[in-house]
Amino acid sequence: MPSANTKTEQPVKLTKHDLFQANWRWLWSSQICWNYERMMSTGYLFTMLPTLKKLYKNERDLIEMMKMHNQFFNTNAYVGGFIVGMDMAIEENKGRKAEETVAGLKAGLMGPFAGVGDTIVGVILPTIFGSIGAYMGLKGNPTGAILWLLVNFTVLILRFFLLPLGYSQGKKLIYAAGDKLNRITDAAILLGVTVVGALIPTVVSANVPLVFKTGKVALKAQTVLNQIMPSLVPVALVAFSYWLLGKKRMNSTRLIVLVLILGIVLGAFGIIGKS
Amino acid sequence: MAIAWWQILLLTMLAFWMIIDQITVGILANYPLLYGFIAGIIMGDVKTGLVVGATLQLMVLGVGTYGGASMPDFMTGAIIGTAYAVISGKGIDFAIGLAVPVGLLMVQLDVLARFTNTFFLHRVDRYIEKGDTKRVARNIVYGVFPWGLSRAIPVFVMLLVGNSVVQKIVNAMPEWLSKGLTAAGGILPVVGIAILLRFLPTKRFVSYLIIGFLAAAYLKIPMLGVALLGLALAIIYYKQSGHPSKNNHDQQDTHKGGFENAIGEYED
Question: What is the ipTM of this complex?
Answer without folding.
Answer: 0.78
